[in-house]
């Protein structure tokens, strides 16, 4: 399955509010690049799944590629709407 196809499927599933198939495709990818990570994070943001956003971002920091500006923009939008106690991510140390 090509990455372009996966990207289309992720965007389609995410826009319909069904994030589960997008996550399954993401989990099946061997080489997850920053675009794949950020697409899923943005999908969670758009669907109001703030806990999942923060969990996935923590996983990206631990296992994935370095986040880019789009990733940080999505995380900051969650940080502004999530209670401080749930947002224990120190963004400045991860920013470029």
From TrEMBL:
What GO molecular function terms would the record report? RNA binding
- Specify the superkingdom: Eukaryota
Residue ranges of PPR repeats: 33-67
UniProt keyword Cytoplasm, yes or no = no
One Pfam short name:
PPR_2
Ordered alphabetically, the record's keywords are: Repeat
What processes in GO biological process is this protein linked to? RNA modification
Which NCBIfam families has this protein been placed in?
PPR (TIGR00756)
What protein name does the entry list? Pentatricopeptide repeat
Q: What is the lineage of its organism?
A: Eukaryota, Viridiplantae, Streptophyta, Embryophyta, Tracheophyta
